[in-house]
Amino acid sequence: LLKGRSESDELLALQFLNRRMVFAEKKDFYLNLEKGYAGEVRFDHLLACSLQEERYILCDLLLKVNNTHFKIDTLIISQGVLHLIDIKNLKVIVI
Q1: Predicted local distance difference test score (pLDDT) of residue 67
Q2: Contacts (Cβ under 8 Å, ≥6 apart) of 34
């Protein structure tokens, strides 16, 4: 693991605010950030338990290309192959 994962500044700020006030507008946004981070942490744990070969792993890469910022959740570098992983932590509701 070359670069670990950490909570974003925005998520940290919303966590502190959530303890002090009731959100009206940003509640769904905050919950999505929380859920997304939890899914990324679960993915990291699964990845650490399942990889047998030597790989380099970089998490939470924030990049800028042509004045556009984007985030790569996980980049796995192995011999001759780059795996770019975008993690989605969706809730499935069965009716």
Answers
A1: 94
A2: 11, 15
